[in-house]
Amino acid sequence: MNKQNDLPRWDLSNIYPSLDSPEFKKANQKLIKMADELDAYLAAHNTDPSKPIKESDPAKLANTIEASVAPPTDASVGYPN
Fold this sequence. Notes:
- By secondary structure, the protein is mainly α.
- Helix content is 48%, strand content 0%.
- It has a domain at 21-71.
- The longest helix has 23 residues, at 22-44.
- It starts with a helix and ends in a 12-residue tail after the last helix.
């Protein structure tokens, strides 16, 4: 058996009609946009993900973490309700 066949596969059929569907393409574009926005946010706050956090103000640190891990609130990303 090929190692590639042993890898787990995600079944997205309960969320998207297909990987070629407009819904999936829209969600994928949204994900790319969110990643770009996160990169811009981290750059604007002089935060390098590969370096230790140096923020000493707890409120600013909390805001940075929250912005980095907050789930999307935009219903257009295609998440099930």
